[in-house]
Amino acid sequence: MLTAFQILGNLWLFVYMVFQILALLGFLISEKNKKIKKYFPVSFVIAVWNEGSRIERCVNSILKQNYKEKIEIIVIGGGTDNTAEICKKLERNGKIEYIEEKKRKGKWFALNKAVKRTKYDLIAFVDGDCVLGKKWLEGAVSKINGIDLVITREMSTTEKTYIGKAISMFQLLSFYAAKNLAKFFGLESFMGYGSIVKKSVFKKIKFKKSFVEDYWFCHDARKGGFKINFADDIIVFHSVPKKLKSLKDEFLRVMYGFNLEFRMKGAFFLKLYSVFIFLFLIGLPFYIYNIFNNDYISYFLSVFSIIIFLIYATICSLKQKTLKYTFYIPHFIFFIIFLGIINFQVNLKILREKRVDWNVFEKI
Fold it and tell me: What is the per-residue pLDDT across 320-340, written as a single tens digit (0 to 9) for each?
């Protein structure tokens, strides 16, 4: 008979292992989504803040698309750097339409405002620090057949640095986890860095005031009955911070949003996240105790989870027609520990404040 120590120490690991298995089984379930070879006019929306060093590169990557229909690019935002100057120059050259914001009201506000200015029935959302391959738009539009929202896969612009390799592995595993688990559950995901949405969706939903506005948009779209496709073969390249301090600042806002907003109703993943974190924090001391006392159940679950993870990581890497990503697993482990530290810091801040302070991380 199981003891209380065994149950408390292994429950979190058992839950983690179940979702690992489901993420793995998701590879066996095929998707019925036929590509189309039609071209439609597309409106690009880019919300920026302090992206002066990167926004021009992003805009140019859009203008270089191998696409046979009209596109418009609407950039909204500003900052304390030279973002506004760069955007005004791009507007004078006829490359973009620029909506300047001198005061930061939140990315959710900027996106909703820009959407109202769009002319076309397909809207592409890209972050200002992203770069698109020449066939990104053609590929993303080809997936829109019978679909309302297409989420493309995010990858680092460089894998030469340790941070670049860590983030690439994290992005790869996270994307396929979201894609595969969505086949079993009504699962939502981030979509702001590179996605295409039918404008008709905005008649029913908008971006909410949130630290993770794109996550909630995806959640509301799924809840509203709109169809979502995870396009793993269409890639958007995301700039990688060069220093740990910059990486920390980038993830603070997201983690702050997650830890505050999992209390909101309706989001399955955030509810699961909160339950898992609770089980992990309660169970970790008991798990360590069980390991030191040679508990065979803890050993079995640990070894089995590691094997499943290695198989999952290998398949994800093979999906890219290479095995190089399996060598990034140590980098991935470092990144998970790093996120855990940020998560701990954010939770301490939330406990001290005992309220939602919108301005805290909007300044980042």
Answer: 999 999 999 999 998 888 887
| 243-299 confidence digits (pLDDT tens) | 777 777 777 766 766 666 655 544 566 667 667 777 888 888 999 999 999 899 999
Distance CA 291, CA 236 (A): 42
Half-sphere CA count of 4, side-chain side, radius 13 A:
1
The answer to whether the CB of 213 falls within 8 A of the CB of 107 is: yes
Task: For residue 300, count other CB atoms closer than 10 A to its CB.
Answer: 12
φ, ψ at 49 (rounded to 5°): -155, 115
- CB atoms inside a 10 Å sphere around CB 234: 25
Phi first, then psi: give them for residue 289, nearest 5 degrees.
-60, -45
Domain 32-241, classified CATH 3.90.550.10, yes or no: yes
Bridge partners (DSSP) listed for residue 122: 42, 198
Nearest to 187 by CA among 125, 254, 272: 272
Strand locations in the chain (E): 42-49, 71-78, 97-100, 122-126, 130-132, 149-156, 194-198, 228-238
CATH 3.90.550.10 occupies which residues in the chain? 32-241
127 CB-near residues (< 8 Å, 6+ apart) = 46, 47, 58, 192, 193, 194, 238
What pTM was computed for the model? 0.85
